[in-house]
Amino acid sequence: MAYSRRITRPTYPQLNPYVSMIDPHNFEQGNMHLQPETADNAELLYQFKVPKWAVNVGVYGNYIHHYITQVARFEDDILLMTYINATSQTKAGLDLSVKADPWKWMTATLGTNTYYLRSVGNIGEWDISNSGWVNNSNLRLDFRPIKGMNINLQYFVNTPQYYPQFTTRFSHYMNIGISQKFLKGALTVSAQLTDVFNTRKWEIFSDNQFYQLDNMLHGKSRMFWLGVSYNFNAYKKAGSVKPEGEDRSKIRTGV
After folding, report:
1. Cα-based distances in Å from 57 to 43, 62, 199
2. 85-122 residue pLDDT tens
3. Which of 7, 14, 2, 131 is nearest to 66 (CA)?
4. Which of 21, 39, 193, 218 is deepest in the core (most CB within 10 A)?
5. Environment class of 211 (CB within 10 Å of its CB; exposed 0-12, middle 13-18, buried 19+)
6. For the chain, what is the domain count?
7. Is residue 12 part of a domain?
8. Among candidates 68, 66, 43, which has minimal Cα distance to 56?
């Protein structure tokens, strides 16, 4: 069981009061009147291990006072992004991870985090509170068909995320990779393809009494990586183990 209380102070970009232009219609400005946010965190963790299985279960809750968040407002045809202190943010949930080794050639790892989030705040008379249930999960499968080879598939699922003033939409994507060791493990050649099905995206929207915003962003998330690494210290030096009873107080020279 753990409990902590922390203070997070605003960063320079969040405090900088000067306006910077992102593009002709989008600007960003800091808020020099931001106050530090204080966070109380409590967590209860349970670990369970048996042959071929390992389970970690965590129940947690945190409360942030003067939560620092980014908000947007329209001024004529300009969208101005800035920062404010929301009243508070409350978060409570369950964190679960399970690792299984059903066979020597396969390992499965599941991680899932489910929580309820509620943000409370306003900009003048404008209420920007938001709340909802959130789940972020990923499943990883590792296969070892031959000695020194590892094939991994990892699938990510993110339900809508809730922020003050904004909500994101559901997203999912998968990565796949393969690696092979040579020269008794000293040399490793690996390859990875991210976002196999080209489904990773960032869609955020806001629907309030002042405006309706829908931002659909899909970056270049599908990439192929090729790596080669060599460990020059991947050998066991003969005579590296010191004999028992060696006098460490003596000054020794040479090799």
Report:
1. 10, 17, 30
2. 999 999 999 999 999 999 999 999 999 999 999 999 88
3. 7
4. 39
5. exposed
6. 1
7. no
8. 43
- Give per-residue pLDDT as tens, 156-213: 999 999 988 889 999 999 999 999 999 888 899 999 999 999 999 888 888 877 777 7
Distance CA(191)–CA(228), nearest Å, equals 9
H-run or E-run covering 13: helix 12-15
- Going by C-alpha positions, the residue among 8, 10, 129 that lies closest to residue 64 is 8
| CA 92/CA 11 separation, integer angstroms | 26
**Residue 81 falls within a domain, yes or no?**
no
Between 12-16, 37-41, 60-64, 71-75, the lowest mean confidence (pLDDT) is in 71-75
CB 58 within 8 A of CB 45: yes
- Please report the pLDDT score of residue 243 as a whole number: 52
**Residue 234, CA distances (Å) to 103, 136, 185 in order:** 28, 38, 7
Residue 172 belongs to domain spanning: 50-68+86-230
| Residue 202 domain flag | yes
- Asked whether residue 150 is domain-assigned, the answer is yes
Q: Among residues 202, 74, 208, which one has the least CA distance to residue 129?
A: 208
- Decide if 14 contacts 83 (C-beta within 8 A): yes
Closest Cα to residue 97, out of 114, 80, 81, 116? 114
Total Cβ atoms within 10 A of residue 109: 17
